[in-house]
Amino acid sequence: MVKLRFMGGTHEVGRNAVLLDTGEANLLLDYGVKIGEKPQFPGHIRARDLDGILVSHAHLDHSGGVPQFYLGEGKPFFATSVTTEVMRVLLRDMIKLSGYWLPFEYIEFEEMLRQRRDLGYGQPVKLKNVEFKLANAGHIPGSAMIELNTGGKRVLYTGDLNTGTTRLVHGAKIPRQRLDAVVIESTYASTDHPDRGELEVSFVEAIKEVLRSEGKVLVPAFAVGRSQEMLSVMNAQKLKARMVIDGMARAVNQIYLGHPDFLRTPKTFVNIVSSTREMTGWRDRRQAVRRSDVIVAPSGMLQGGTAMFYMERLALNERNAVFLVSFQVPGTRGARLLETGFFTIKEMDVEVKAQVRHFDFSSHSGKTGLQAFLRGLKGKPDVYVIHGEPENCEALAQWARDELDLNATAPNEGDEFTV
Ligand SMILES: [Zn+2]
Ligand SMILES: [Zn+2]
Question: Model pTM greater than 0.90?
Answer without folding.
Answer: yes
